[in-house]
């Protein structure tokens, strides 16, 4: 597809990286020549210098022949104007705008209806949703969602005393008492695609596919105590804090927001009457003690400084806060943090880029490409969601009669609102969403790639 | 430095060269010249062995390429291409000495057209074809070809742009389409289409298909190797005129032809570099015609030769329809200036490039204005787009390095005892990829008289000129090969 990306900020560049790797024709528009220069040397793209909302620049970028415009400049207004202008020039174009100002949040549906916006993304809101989910299901260090949040693949670490140790996988449903499927096991740093007679051992990390509704039951029956957090400490009063505090206060949790800017604190307390808001510097140890920092169940480090967030999270761990979540503005340092005790890491830029990439994949759905792709098991395996369509082979045949490639596992079939963890007698039909897991060695680009026969 | 990736790309280059040697091999097989056939087969075997070994050693490379790797890859690939390309001449005994053969083939790949052969007519047909075909390969660049056919660039990686920049001439190199592979394909399609057109038109002028293609290769790449000893002097006015037109066509930026194909006529006609090029060329033709009028029987004939010589020199081809060494000094001086100027950026022509001259002129104008009015602010624009200061600074640097290399080469080759005119024109003709110069290296003479050292120096001048200095120069900077630099 021909895609215009306006704005080469954090999200713009991440999208450029992801989408150009998928083989799309990308044209990047930005006002700063220097940003474009570094982008064109890194990625296989074309660049246009200028304001993306201007008619001239859009024409130079060949908007007439583009299929999609993604506006992710720093200004919401420019993003909207760019999308409106692009639609005037090319009525067929899909438009995605990043709109992050909370004041516009409730009028997004208006913009979609009247301005023909295909999708509005709000990185801060998405980050807040993600963090809220981590707080609600604290048992999983990492979880990936599929089929609009109806299916999850969660990561569970087996301790010595776990009820699953030394059990065969086929015994699993009897222990957990709900439908789940172990789609990958990470043992001694190596990913294995297990079969039914695989025996679990202590210190394995297992990846479990389950319906979102079954998650609580899964945790309970596994004996993983899900003591739900009751109090949350939010360091930093950014937009994410606002969205997050609003959700958490609504669920009845104790929320304390700390920010160093008095004016911002006043804004927050007037918007969030149920929350506690304090003004002070979170890098100050005495101040933290005064705020009873170590007595909270959950710490979320959300300040604008990545370095401060990392230090604060490590400190939070060291004083014994059970759950720690770190927000990172830049994903560049992610690889350096892997071994540090910073808890779960949330990167708004990546979340936002991922949801846009999902939209792009959905646009291409006619040709049967993946809808959602998540890397699991330290990147050694891939979980991919597909839509079953007319071109899919073997529809209506029981799974036990279909030969799939080695190291490929169909681990979930979703039809309408029902989620089925498949067995040998399961079938898939047109319109179903199915999730398959493959180890990285087998390349799966279309659903038909999973079948052994040609 | 990522040696493995460099090695892998070089192994691809070697494999491509095998493919390129197939047409001359077939020609030699058909003409039944077993000696030449074996020399091609030997070269192919060596290429396969070297390429295969290199590939096996480097197949597990990481796709990480930074600016330095791109420059080194480009520089090395042209040197090894020229080295393996000259082997058929050595094996067949046509040019027994390696330095001579390297000079001849480097001159082919860099589209220079300078020759040490006293008689091309005596060459076996297959080698004659390879001689001209090497021009065509070098004209657009073999790495650009590699990008067009290999999924190197489909990994979403931008490093290919660095290679395009290193291999394509001009101060500013951009893409035509978002994907590098499609940009490379478009460039090659334009190149291929225009070459075919030229060959067909030459065939209509009464040449054999073999001659028509060989000359079209030389014209398209702005190379300059002919198929007969006196270049174009014995051809009909029709062939001379067709070649004149095509030499001009091939010395204009190829992205302008893409604009034509995309029906963006306004942008095509407004291009400032092309306009300056046409003005300079028009004025030169007029002045030379007036200057040489007395030497020819008709006004018409003088114009035809003036136009052909101006075309051959600005496009840096190096054909000759008349022995311009016999022309008056004024005409020769104009030609010498045009030799240094060269063609437009993004064409197959060499030289300093018209767009660089345009930038330098505008920069000079700005500096003069700033002396008069120190507070004035000005930016330099080309085709309505601002040219950033980095580009202007590197254009200035390019000029100084270019002059420095010319002077250094001149000093070395002066040892051989030729006249100053010969030496100066030899360096200029090699560095700008033209071919023939004046006096002892004039259009009717050749470079055979120079010593081995001079031939190697001149061969590297050709490579430096074709790749615009940097990719070859970095190979000789010790820092390039240091681990952490």
Helix content of chain B: 55-70%
Arithmetic mean pLDDT of chain B: 89
Distance between the termini of chain B: 9 Å
Beta strand % of chain A: 15-25%
CA gyration radius of chain A, whole angstroms = 23 Å
- Largest sheet, strands/sense/barrel of chain A: 6 strands, parallel
Structural class of chain B: mainly alpha
Estimated structural class of chain A: alpha/beta
Span between termini of chain A: 27 Å
Q: How many structurally independent domains of chain A?
A: 4
The chain pair with the largest interface is: A-B, 18 and 19 residues
Question: How do the strands of the widest beta sheet of chain B line up side by side?
Answer: 1-2
Mean pLDDT of chain A: 85
List keywords for this structure.
heterodimer, A: 454 residues, alpha/beta, Rossmann fold, Alpha-Beta Plaits, 4 domains, six-stranded parallel β-sheet, 14 helices, 22 strands, globular, B: 485 residues, mainly alpha, two-stranded antiparallel sheet, 21 helices, 2 strands
Structure commentary:
The complex is a heterodimer of chains A (454) and B (485). By secondary structure, chain A is α/β, with parallel strands linked by helices. Chain A has four domains: 2-121, NAD(P)-binding Rossmann-like Domain (Rossmann fold); 128-221, Regulator of K+ conductance, C-terminal domain (Alpha-Beta Plaits); 231-321, Rossmann fold; 366-450, Regulator of K+ conductance, C-terminal domain (Alpha-Beta Plaits). Chain A contains 14 helices and 22 strands. Chain A is globular, with a radius of gyration of 23 Å. The model of chain A has no long low-confidence stretch (mean pLDDT 85). Chain B is mainly alpha-helical. Chain B has helices at residues 3-31, 34-58, 67-85, 87-91, 98-109, 125-140, 142-149, 159-167, 180-204, 209-220, 237-250, 254-261, 265-270, 272-292, 299-314, 329-341, 354-372, 389-413, 420-431, 452-466, 470-473; strands at residues 381-382, 385-386. In chain B, a hairpin with a 2-residue loop joins β1 (381-382) and β2. Classes of the chains: A alpha/beta (454), B mainly alpha (485).
